[in-house]
User: What shape does this take?
Amino acid sequence: DTAVSQTPKYLVTQMGNDKSIKCEQNLGHDTMYWYKQDSKKFLKIMFSYNNKELIINETVPNRFSPKSPDKAHLNLHINSLELGDSAVYFCASSQFLGQTGELFFGEGSRLTVL
Amino acid sequence: DAKTTQPTSMDCAEGRAANLPCNHSTISGNEYVYWYRQIHSQGPQYIIHGLKNNETNEMASLIITEDRKSSTLILPHATLRDTAVYYCIVRTGANNLFFGTGTRLTVIP
Assistant: This one.
């Protein structure tokens, strides 16, 4: 079983559209994240949720809205897509109180905005 | 969080040890050193972490200098599958790790 799974793996869409990426983890972790990796390969955190509550919200346009229906799921909804949103989006999970430093990442969702 | 400095790229012959350095001269006493790697088109993968003692697991060894201002990740017998970008991260907790540009390791047959 995949520990952290994201869907879809590839997403091609037009500017101005609204799209969602789903993430699920079956590790029993209580913290989930969204990271963005741009064309220059920098990996930057966008959001972090602990037990369905937002704990980290980096400087991300409010067109991006994460939603956590339960602690095993963290979905990313993006409104009014722009060319600059093209990137690979990674979901991750961890135990919040742990000091192991181990984040488990999904395989990524490559978003292309035309 | 302390900033880290890593070489942009390194090569290593297959079967030899790969030694990846990382400088973190501004590290504070409660900050851990973490290493992750990202194989092409995959999500980052945790390798190892440590505070001040050297650490070893099934994937690698982590050597931290006594003053904790630098560390070295050692892959004892590099294989072609170890070709990846390796990230050294210094952080107080397990969460919200910030990834820099990393070292691109190429294992050569």
The interface with chain A takes residues 32, 34, 36, 38, 41-46, 49, 85, 87, 91, 93-99, 101 of chain B (CB under 8 Å).
